[in-house]
Structure formats: structure tokens, C-alpha cells
Write a structure and sequence with these properties.
Chain lengths: ~55, ~450
């Protein structure tokens, strides 16, 4: 990601699962790619997160 | 608990804890030197295991004659122990699979230990048919594989063979289910560890990263395994019951056996989970993780399954009278008033009468009372199997062949040894792996609690 100066990597930290889901939806709506989403437990609907974060293969 | 969102629900983790604190607390027993209580328990359990090994050694070197069996009572203590341990093994997968499918989130604090209990109980159970063979080194003859033994081929019409398939399948699925559930926690331990320990847990965690992709696949696999394990909970003891029900022995030949055995297995399994969880929460100071609410819910399942068992006892007795078969009728009269009446009434007292005190909330929420009751139920369920097996066999169709059975030192020693094996494995598990599912408990930290809107700001400060 850092090979090109025009590319920036943003890392965000969220307190709870609702904020994660809301953030993933918002980032997706803005058209930005999501590199990955890490959680310490199975957030209900982690399948949904995977679908929203379309480039999480 | 002023922060409840609902008066109907209590939090599943009773104290205010952060995720880091949960990790610390659950991993603490793995990182510390064991205390004197653990060493005392381990010494007792390991001594019992050694007694069992000695008894099995004498059995193998001298023959089945060291047991109290005779020509009339060919199945007794050994098969009683087998059915008892298989039954104990039922609660783990029920908690893991069935409660998971029903979205019962209270299972999170107890499922890991219950699953481990299942595996250890099935190991103990498998021991008994093998040593009962007399030549345990030929145990692989159980398996249907191409061989040169001619007519010595397994009998596919026998439930004994299906027992081998059912129990081995149950063990494999339960072990896989347990291990899959452990993966996120193994990664947590890996991330905290250093050196060789980190490498070992790294290999065991299979490269777990906690990303959305891994969680998504984990959830799918876990759901599929839960679906696969659920019918096994019902099938294993159904097949064990058919070991008896497909015979023509009075007292065994009953169509009610499969549901009766399954309910009894869950009944005894939950009693054992209660015993272990009450000890665990006390020894590791996890009263906020394994709460009275957890214990109370398990007590409710015990009332339900205990009531099914009571109805089954009544139905059996009623059918013995109503069926009009004189041998069947005698078998039940003999159980209640014959030379083993003491065993029958012990069973009735422990399994039919004692669980009804759980209708009172005061008892269900009293930890000491639950502990005593869980032990009473397990004693009762052991006697249930003893009554079914021994009292049905010792007086059959021919009065000339009637006989009494008395266990010998070696049989009692083997039973004690099986408890030794069970607790040695459980205590070792307590030192090596997380006994509570860290990832799942983190997922229920917010259960029945109001969200903290300024939590992020507090953390930053």
C-alpha cells in the first residue's frame, strides 16, 4: 500500500461492534476500498461485514 | 447492576470487565504455577488413575475371572460404567451444538469445559468395552476391514457394532467441534506468549488472524458442525439403549429405551457439568464468568430431563403390569422388592425425588445445594445403569440359573480409576488450555448492559 505516495492507509479503532458495522457501511458507501476488518470475537453478521468490505477476499 | 437495559435479563458476565481483563483472567491459570489445591486434586486423581491401571493390569494378566461375573450375570459393573460415562459425555455437545443452534448465549462461559468433559468422558467410556473383551489387544477386531479371519467378521445387525460406529463418530465430531471453537483462543494465547510456547500455540492456531474472512468462515464451519453434532447427541445413547432393547431379557426389551436413555444421559451429563463448573468457578475465582444464572439455567434443564426420566421409570413399570408378560412383571417386582431393592430405591431417591427440590428458586440459586444435588444425581444415574443391567440379568427365565452378583476389588478399583483418568485429564486441560471461551465471552460482555457512549473517550484519556 505504501509503495505509491498517492496511496494512503487509514487504520481505525472502534469500541464496539455497532461502530464497526456502521463504519464499514460508511466507508463502502464512500467508495473507498477496505483492506480488512479485525475483531476479537465473532461480531454477529461477520458474514455481512465480509460482504460489505468487498475486497476482503 | 445499575446499568441493566432490561429487568428481565441479567448480564452474562456479572462484573464490569474490559476485553483485556477477560483475556488476562482466563489465561491466568495457564501462565501461573499451580497452587496447592490443584496439586492436591491432581495427586488424588492421579493416584486413582494408577489404582485403575493396576486393576486393569491384573485383569489382563489374570483374565476376566478376577471380576465378580458369573454365567448368569455376564454384564455388570463394567458395562454399568460404560453406559454411565457415555451418558456423562452427552451434555458437552448438547451445550455446544444444540444450545448454539437455539442461540442460547448463556452457553458461552460453560461450553469449553463441557466439551472437554465430553471428550474425557467418552475416553473413559471406550475403555470399558475394550477391557471387557478379555483380550483387549484384539480390540481392532471391532472394525470391519478386509482380513483373513474367514467367518470372524463383524455383525452389522448387532447394535454393539453400531455402538462402535456411533461412539467413534461422536468422539471425532466432538473433538473437531471443540478444536474449531478453540482456534480464536489459541491465537490469543499465541499473541501473549513468547519463545517456544508462542511457536507451539502458533502452530495450533492455524494462522488465525481475527479478520472478517476468518470469522466468517469460522461461523459457517461452526454452524455446520453444530448441525452435524446435534443428531449425534440423540443417536449415541439411542444406540447404547438398543444394546439392551433388542434383546429378549425381561427389563431390557422395551421400546421406550431410546428416549429414556437420551434424557437420562443429558440429565447425568448436566449434573456432571454442574459439579465441574461449581468447582472451577470457586478455584479460579470466576464467579462473575460462571454466574449463578448459568447454574440456574442448567438446573432448569436438569428438572426437565429428570422429569422425563421419572416418567420413563413410571411408564416402564406400568407397561410391565399392563403388558401381561409374567417375566416382565416379575423383573420389575424383583427390582423394587428383590435382593437389589436397595439399589433400586437409591436410584429412585436420587433421580426421581431429589431433582424436584429444583422447582424452588432458592435451591436453584444456592450453589452449595446445587453442588450436593449434582453429586446425588450422578450417584443415582450410576445406580440406574446398575439396576437396569444387574437386576435384569441376575434372575431371568430359569430360576435354576438365578445368581447374585457382587463386585470385586478389581471392578471397584477400575471404576475409581476411570474417575482418576477423567479428573487427571480435566485438571491437565485446566493448566494447558483456556477453560472458558475467551472470544465468545467477549461477545457477550455487553449483553443486558446499556452501551457506554463515552467509552472511546475514556479509553483515549
Amino acid at each position: 500500500m505504501s509503495s505509491s505516495a498517492s496511496q494512503k492507509l487509514w487504520v481505525a479503532w472502534f469500541e464496539d461492534e455497532h461502530q464497526v458495522l456502521a463504519a464499514v457501511r460508511a466507508v463502502r458507501a464512500s467508495g473507498l476500498p477496505i483492506y480488512d476488518v479485525f475483531t476479537p470475537y465473532a461480531v454477529p453478521g461477520s458474514v455481512r461485514i465480509k460482504q460489505l468490505a468487498n475486497n476482503v477476499s | 447492576m445499575s446499568d441493566h437495559t432490561s429487568e428481565l435479563r441479567r448480564p452474562l458476565v456479572e462484573a464490569e470487565r474490559t476485553m483485556a481483563q477477560i483475556t488476562e483472567e482466563v489465561c491466568a491459570p495457564m501462565g501461573q504455577r499451580p497452587g496447592w489445591k490443584w496439586w492436591l486434586a491432581f495427586t488424588v486423581a492421579f493416584s486413582a488413575l494408577n489404582l485403575g491401571i493396576y486393576c486393569v493390569y491384573v485383569l489382563v494378566t489374570s483374565g476376566v475371572g478376577v471380576w465378580g461375573l458369573n454365567k448368569t450375570v455376564g454384564w455388570a459393573f463394567d458395562i454399568t460404567n460404560f453406559v454411565f460415562w457415555v451418558g456423562i459425555g452427552h451434555a458437552g455437545t448438547l451445550i455446544s451444538a444444540i444450545l448454539f443452534l437455539f442461540r442460547q448465549r448463556w452457553r458461552t462461559s460453560v461450553n469449553r469445559s463441557a466439551e472437554a468433559m465430553t471428550l474425557f468422558a467418552v475416553m473413559c467410556a471406550a475403555l470399558f468395552p475394550i477391557i471387557h473383551m478379555g483380550r483387549p489387544w484384539l480390540a481392532y477386531w471391532f472394525l470391519p476391514y478386509p482380513n483373513g479371519r474367514g467367518s470372524l467378521w463383524v455383525n452389522f445387525r448387532s447394535p454393539l457394532l453400531w455402538d462402535v460406529f456411533a461412539i467413534s463418530t461422536y468422539f471425532i465430531v466432538s473433538a473437531v467441534f471443540w478444536y474449531i471453537g478453540l482456534l480464536p483462543d489459541l491465537a490469543t494465547v499465541r499473541d501473549r506468549a513468547r519463545g517456544l510456547r508462542r511457536r507451539i500455540f502458533g502452530v495450533m492456531a492455524f494462522g488465525w488472524s481475527g479478520s472478517a474472512r476468518t470469522w466468517s468462515r469460522y461461523e459457517i464451519v461452526y454452524l455446520l458442525l453444530a448441525g452435524l453434532a446435534t443428531p449425534l447427541v440423540l443417536s449415541v445413547h439411542t444406540i447404547v439403549s438398543m444394546d439392551f432393547a433388542t434383546s429378549v431379557v425381561p427389563g431390557w426389551h422395551a421400546t421406550i429405551f431410546p428416549p429414556y436413555f437420551v434424557a437420562g444421559a443429558v440429565f447425568s451429563g448436566f449434573a456432571m457439568v454442574l459439579t465441574l463448573m461449581i468447582i472451577t468457578r470457586s478455584v479460579f475465582h470466576w464467579k462473575h464468568l460462571i454466574t449463578v444464572t448459568h447454574l440456574e439455567r442448567m438446573a432448569k434443564i436438569i428438572i426437565l430431563t429428570g422429569s422425563i426420566v421419572s416418567v420413563a421409570y413410571g411408564t416402564e413399570a406400568f407397561m410391565a403390569w399392563y403388558g401381561g408378560n409374567r417375566y416382565e412383571r416379575y423383573a420389575f417386582l424383583n427390582r423394587a422388592f428383590g435382593p437389589y431393592a436397595w439399589a433400586y430405591w437409591t436410584m429412585v431417591t436420587c433421580n426421581v425425588l431429589s431433582p424436584h427440590v429444583l422447582w424452588f428458586k432458592k435451591v436453584r440459586t444456592n450453589v452449595a445445594a446445587l453442588f450436593v444435588l449434582s453429586l446425588v444425581i450422578n450417584v443415582g444415574m450410576w445406580f440406574e445403569r446398575f439396576v437396569i443391567i444387574v437386576t435384569s440379568l441376575h434372575r431371568d427365565f430359569l430360576p435354576s440359573s438365578w445368581a447374585m452378583y457382587r463386585p470385586t476389588f478389581y471392578e471397584i478399583g477400575t471404576l475409581i480409576g476411570s474417575f482418576g483418568l477423567f479428573f487427571t485429564l480435566f485438571l491437565t486441560f485446566a493448566r494447558l488450555l483456556p477453560m472458558v471461551s475467551i472470544a465468545e465471552v467477549k461477545g457477550v460482555l455487553g449483553y443486558a448492559r446499556a452501551p457506554k457512549p463515552d467509552a472511546h473517550r475514556e479509553e483515549a484519556a
